[in-house]
Amino acid sequence: MDTYSSCKGSALKEPFNSEAAAKGKKKTSTRITVRISVEGFNPLRPEDEIKSELINHFESCGDIIRVDVPTDPFYDSRAFVILHGNGLKVREKALQLNGSDIGDWNALVKLAPEEEEEEYKAAVAYKKSLCADLANDKRFLFGIAVLGYDTSLPQDEVESILREHFSSCGEITHVYVDTLDKCTNIYFSKEEGEASALDLNGSKVGGFKITTMRVATVRSNRRSGPGTVGSCIPAHFLEFSRENTKKLEDYMTEWRAKARREKDSALRKHNTFKASKRARG
After folding, report:
1. What is the pTM of this model?
2. Could you tell me which residues are beta bridge partners of residue 86?
């Protein structure tokens, strides 16, 4: 995270209250620090623009101590605003801005206490590992997208027909029939297979004239990888997104259970130590 820092963090003293003093009551103001996360903006925009918008939008909530903007938006697109202000008002004011309009986007505002970051970081780390597995899968280095075939056919029949049609191009490593977008991605073990398949653009499959085009892969996006300006997410990342979301959910369920067990164990050890200390004393 890149940060913006403000020198507004010093606590302010309240005016002397003579009436409260006369009654012998001590009146104090509790100032708290609140960390919020903000989503909804385009994280690929210049950092200075994002920071400026967030500062202008949240400065009415309290003193802005720091603004962090995402440095790896492909994995974590949140920005963080750290506020300091009087009592619970700073928290309430910030949350009231949830859904508010900031130019051409709406702010999704949530409380983001530091103690919850450990769980979030665990999720991001596992997501990165899943993406790394996909990025390093050699089955998806060379591929084409096919459109124009008979989309009324069952999914398995479409795959069978297209496999046969492109079998002369080389070894086919994977076929994905997208029934929603009415498009099929076909991957080859070698670049020559991809090139040969592209040459079949305009050929006919079952009486239908098909269109072939190069599909987005890790190889074709090597220069401007995921999360950078001008990049295109590899098609197989999207294909396996639902499967990976389920893997992430299962992993985090286990992670939370393990974290609870460790916390309970630490608490029991602490209580045992305190009891032992009292017994010795």
Report:
1. 0.65
2. 31
Q: Which residue has the tokens 């939008």?
A: 57
pLDDT in tens, 170-191: 999 999 999 999 999 999 999 9
Taking the C-alpha atoms of residue 94 and residue 185, their distance in angstroms, rounded to an integer, is 45
The domains located in the chain, with CATH, are 2-112 (3.30.70.330), 142-216 (3.30.70.330)
**β-bridge partners, 212:** 146
Which of 76-80, 215-219, 220-224 shows the lowest mean pLDDT across its residues? 220-224
Strand ranges (E), the chain:
2-5, 31-39, 63-69, 79-86, 101-102, 105-106, 108-111, 142-147, 172-178, 183-188, 204-205, 208-209, 211-214
Please write down the HEC assignment for all residues of 12-49. CCCCCCHHHHHCCCCCCCCEEEEEEEEECCCCCCCHHH
**Average pLDDT of 69-82?**
84
Helix (H) or strand (E) holding 259, with range, is: helix 241-280
As a whole number of angstroms, the distance between CA 62 and CA 167 comes to 65
Which of 243, 1, 239, 235 minimizes the C-alpha distance to 120? 1
Q: What is the DSSP letter of 71?
A: S
Sequence-separated (6 or more) residues with CB below 8 Å from residue 119: 252, 255, 256, 259
DSSP bridge pairs for 81: 36, 67
